[in-house]
Model the fold of this input.
Amino acid sequence: MSRLGSLGARLYRGEVGYDFVAKRKIWYGISILITITAIVGLAVRGLHMGIEFSGGAVFTTPTTSVSADEAREKAESAAEGHTAIAQKLGGGGLRIQISDLDTAAAQPVQEALAKDLGVQSSKINTQLVGPSWGEEIAKKAWQGLAIFMILVVIYLAIAFEWRMALAALIALIHDLTITVGVYALVGFEVTPGTVIGLLTILGYSLYDTVVVFDGLREGSKDLTKQTRYTYSEIANRSLNSTLVRSINTTVVALLPVGALLFIGGGLLGAGMLNDISLALFVGLAAGAYSSIFIATPLVADLKERDPQMKALAKRVRAKRAAVAARGESSAESEASEDARGTADAEEDADEDLEPEDATPAGVVGPRSTGAARDQAARNQPSRNRGRGRPSGKRR
Amino acid sequence: MAAPKKGRRSPGAQGRPGRALVGILVAMVALVGGMFLSGNTTPRLGIDLAGGTSFTLEAKNEPGKPNAINKANMDTAVNIMERRVNGLGVSEAEVQTQGRKHIIVNIPKGTDAKQARKQVGTTAKLGFRPVLSIGDGKPTKDPGADKPKPKPTPTKGADKGDNKDQPKGDEPTSPTPTASSTTQGRALPSALKAPTPKPSPTGDAPTKPSKEQADQVKKAEELQKQFAALDCTTPKARAAASQQAATRPNTEPIVACDRKGEAKFILAPVQLEGKHVEDASAVYSTQGGSGWIVQLDFDGKGGKQFGKITGELAKQQPPQNQFGIVLDGEVASNAEVSFAIKGGKAEISGSFEQQEADDLANILSYGSLPLTFDIVDETTVSSALGEEQLNAGLIAGGIGLVLVILYMGIYYRGLALVAIASLGVSAILTYSLMVLLGEAIQFALNLPAVCGAIVAIGITADSFIVYFERVRDEIREGRTLRPAVQRGWPRARRTILVSDFVSFLAAAVLFIVTVGKVQGFAFTLGLTTLLDVVVVFFFTKPLMTILATRPFFASGHPWSGLDPKRLGAKPPLRSRRRPIAPADTKEA
Done:
């Protein structure tokens, strides 16, 4: 952990860091590729809708010696022409699905099946679904999804700003598309459980994004009062410094879901637990990816279009050019490690040379210039050079 | 920077952590105590975990009545459905509307699913059938001769009143008021009607009910036999009888029991179908002391027909001047007619209790419900599978919990204790609330809800992570633990509130909008999200404040998870209390 801890610290201070924002084109590219694959998969293969949506019957038998193939044949003969799918469950039971069977016709089938398989009719679990109920569930779910998206965008626009709300929404749609795409491509069955899982991703994927955005919002406070960093750089800083948090929250969220998936799949074979947790697992993973690689870069992109931020970027560039022109030696010796993680050409300013920058630098977001230090910096500017800055010391 | 100000403001909170902890402890004790007091220590389980059968019914408009699916109609339907299901002798069946046009019927294990399906799945049939004969609820020994003869009391409405006798009291005491006159004069006070027509098995048999058609004599005899054999005394027998009666077509006479099993009837073919009832309501009539009565409105055709029937019935001798209101093969009420009731409006009086009047009005309006119901989903779960699923859920939850604790332990060390304690508090609160809500709002824990609870472990733990990371960030700034705990809080609080709000929003929207299992899931998720906020605010934070004063944590013991060295903290800036050169491992 000491490794991890210090890595966390270095990420936090921006000593190490990955430039997520600058390389955003790559991530956008990857995401677009995945999304296209998902959409193509959806278009070509379609979703494998479960019985609940197409209507039909699912029978689950207690432990039986009958093999899945035999059971399928028997089920098909009992259901006269309807297709049946049979699978062996973990506990030795069978799960037999017969599609397009209407609820009234299912009853005799159940009895025939019980007789054929040699189990008591009352011990067979049945689920008979008319297609309209599944449709109702799905319809309501879509409604819920739409309402939620509208509300959450409004909320995020108020709590943060519209750009973040937009980016969060795009990230959310991205997550949902990927999840649905995985379902289409792999051919997992879509059940009400899947819908539930998918809907949970809503809240969860956003949870992650919100945690990152919160850091970003804080980091970019008073941004325009300084000329050291552009918005994108700040965004990247915030992202890196909340990285540990993001990873931890994602891991902790995935652990129980993974347990559900494992138990649901391993112990029960199939069913609600499995369906929910599978959708959740895929969606959470996609959500963690998108809040780091998609949402924040998107915000940065949108922000950089803002005239204020454009002006800031211009100032930052101008200043850097000036610093570079003024000679590298002094600048380098004073270079703060704050700059390390962020922009490539982060030649830090010598504050003595650029007096108008001295105060703002303290006010700026980068958290390593914490309040205490700022005060120190402001109160005793003379100490700035050598002692006040740990960076100087460390060198 | 805003944070330092907040940081300075919040030390006041340091005086309160004890109080907050006591508060949440009291809340816990209250909830757990309430749980034990209520006598339930386990949450109500849904059908998929406890075993049983669950039906989902979808309402359909009848042709020509497009706007029939509304709350009032659905509620009436639920009432009727409840009556039917509970007629099976099921004790804990629950019937609820779900969304706009669905009704969910849950029948616990131990009930014959097939029978239940029949009850639930058939469309209710309400009809008015003239009474041919009435008998005591018990099977009659000698079918041939012994014909019970009711002694209806004269009943009397005002002009339009058609009277009905509600069998009362259990023993068919000898028919007290013998006045069988159908007087045209003013009504006797209804109070007198109360001990009314107890069908008593006196010998004097009414003539055979086969006056109408000569070729029906045989059938009538058949009917008599059935009638004699009919046993209305036990709920089970009644259910069987009504099921049988319900399957008979409207055009045939039937034998049927009343709802209490006190009387049985031979009833003529349906003369008027329930769908002609436009409205029925129970009202309290001050007029003539008749008390609670049921008012009926017929549609045009129904009114005419009703007038015709009552006209005919009024001419008959008792008991054949009565008609039975038959719902699902069971006589909901039988009413005596003294004269033709024209005009499409009628009243049924008979010293009802309010409840009885309401029930009858309900039944009558059900007949007018322009709704039919289809079974769109039927799930039968054997108790074995239910148990298996519950166990799987619990095991998965346990494993998930252990994994989360392990991860927290490895990563946060001492801090993990705070997380574990907080998770524990959260678990206790969630559990006791679920139990209590099971009582209060019929919350049943189903499989998706269990999933929601397991997923919630992650959400709850995430809040702790957000806070812990904040505190650690503050320590990295070179602060000691106590200020770090205070300064980290306002920022963490905001993040937690915002992200929990988003989570809660999702749960709330889903709960309101969606149907069925999705709803159960959304409910747990919403509940646990709320509890997460409660726990973080009133438990985790105060606990951290208190622990920050403990040397183990405050001194940054390597196992506390707050060791400044490991966290790569900067040295304190203004004073160099700690001589250790920080983080020289770092290359810049």
Observations:
- Chain A touches chain B through 101 residues (CB under 8 Å).
- Residues 1-51+132-395 of chain A form a domain with the Multidrug efflux transporter AcrB transmembrane fold fold (CATH 1.20.1640.10).
